[in-house]
Amino acid sequence: MAQRRDGSKTRWLKDEMAQNPFDQLAKQYLEEFLTSAGQVVRNLEIPGEAKFVDVFFSPNPETTPPTDLGLLGRMTQRMCSLEPFRNAPTRNEVRTCILKLLWLQEEERRRAKQTGQRLREENLPQLWILAATTTRPVLEDAGAVAHANWPEGVYRLPALFKAAIVAIDQLPETDETLWLRILGKGATQERAIRTVVALPSDHPRRRNILRLLASWKVRIDLGELEDSEARGTIMVLSQAFLEWEQATEARGLQQGLQQGLQQGLQVGERQVLKRLLARKLGVLSESLTASIDALSLEQLEALAVDLFDLETVEDLEAWLLTVKRSLLIKQFTERFEGLGDEFESALADLSLEQIERMSRQVMAAGEEWVRLESVEMLWEWVQKGGIKSTTLGHLS
């Protein structure tokens, strides 16, 4: 929601759910990191202008700044505005950012004058344009030059403006730049997400960042993915989501919230995966589509991770067969003692269609399934469902 500096609510800048999910992630993400160190305002309205600063940060002088923010912490030691861009900013977008900065600086001068204070030059608000990528002509026209004593990829604009452009795809891949690289694009962002997922489970930042990435993934899933880079990124986000989901379950958060999130993900995930599979393998048969529709959330996540290893329709069929057979083995061995490896070998003789029919029987059997007390009764029940297997038959 758009806000003024005093925190009073004005009007919606635009409906949040209609905004680009990458834009929303960037604002929520920066707020997550900076809230503990000072005041963070998203969509700050420029007084008297129909313009909004994406993120405005004012450090709290009475608070010890976090020590784990790396380059982001160094950038936000003073009052500043942060303008993230998913694509390379144009000349006009850079000019607009500078215009908003000048309004902010003038507003701070006005505030200082009203209180009888003199605002020192070094205390004026600064601007950081966080660009996932940049173009050389725009950097040159903006007068941007490599920022001395800062990492590669940080460009200082003329000193008069107190502004800089951070080319995220040019930053060195170090711990210091990790939190900024999450706001990158394509391979830069994907490698950063993998680094976050690989952090120790007790890392103080890991859980909340995975939560934000999970939320981002759900919003992408439920929308239309026309951007090929977004389709690639969602595969990496699948792992981040799964990590977050497992941690959420372990903490036992409210069941209603978890179920709502899972249901929303399942709808979007299924649609996305079927579109990607069709693009890679060709039109899927009705039986394969039905098999994908029957997958659980956990199985959908596994398919998202393994998707790019599948080269043919036969690979997909084999993957589905392996997953469903493993689930059946688990269901049967948990219900009946003594099945062991012999039963597992027996199931290996069954086709995907037979495995799925057995799965449906298990799901539909209800009290009848509970009454089965022996392997003999199990086999009689399986045969009743029309599944014939010599290998299974000898188990009785």
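Above is the first protein from milestone M3; the second protein from the same milestone is given next.
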Amino acid sequence: MNTTTRRTLRALQASTLRLMRLPARVRGLVIIAPLAFYAAVMMLPLASERAFDAVTREDGLIEYAQFFALVACGLLSGTQARRLWCRARGWALVYGAFALVCLAAAGEEISWGQRIFGIETPQWYAANNHQAETTIHNLQGVQELQAPVVVGVLAILSGLSIWGWTRGRSYSTIGRGLYLLIPHPMLLPAWICMIGYVGVLTLTHDVAGTSSSFYIGRLQEPAELILIVGVAVFLAHVGWLERGRRSLRSAST
């Protein structure tokens, strides 16, 4: 390979890497949007308690938004699994399994259509489910484990995110597949909303009055939606980087 060819190849690689970097406006929107949305929902009762109830209650706007966001996560993860199958079978299996988890979570979110179709809850679920519904995530013993597990996973991902992306953003780092696991730091506010909610819920447990407990409990819905949309953005960002990787390989051949 002569000098001119090497220079052309380096120029093409540099151009591709620039295209892989998200625009600053996009990063800013991803950072600000979850915090602004959560703050708006928190202040909504000051404007209209009826609107706050309609947005955060079971079968409310946010819950159905969670359902569609989880379906989107499942489709994005499944698409990524298909793209990875030829070159990274292990990661393809991980993303395929995660797609199934997301779709199952979507079904759980709407109680598998139980409330929509008026299906009666089996006796065992009625006795052992916190919401007397045919779901697994609200079973006694399972629901109590969700908060510490979710917070632990988000704390680990946040630490990896800060470590991975501040250590270096070169394609050599991305090329080792770290981008398939480590979210971009722009998603930290999405994780912080859920971590903060669980922290407040823990601190106010058995302390807040009935009305305060009701209000704090309802804030779980927007925190969950922000978390799910954050996962969807992560998966979309992985797809963006994958396209850049393919372009880089093409430029190198």
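Note on the second protein: Residues 220-252 form the longest helix (33 residues).
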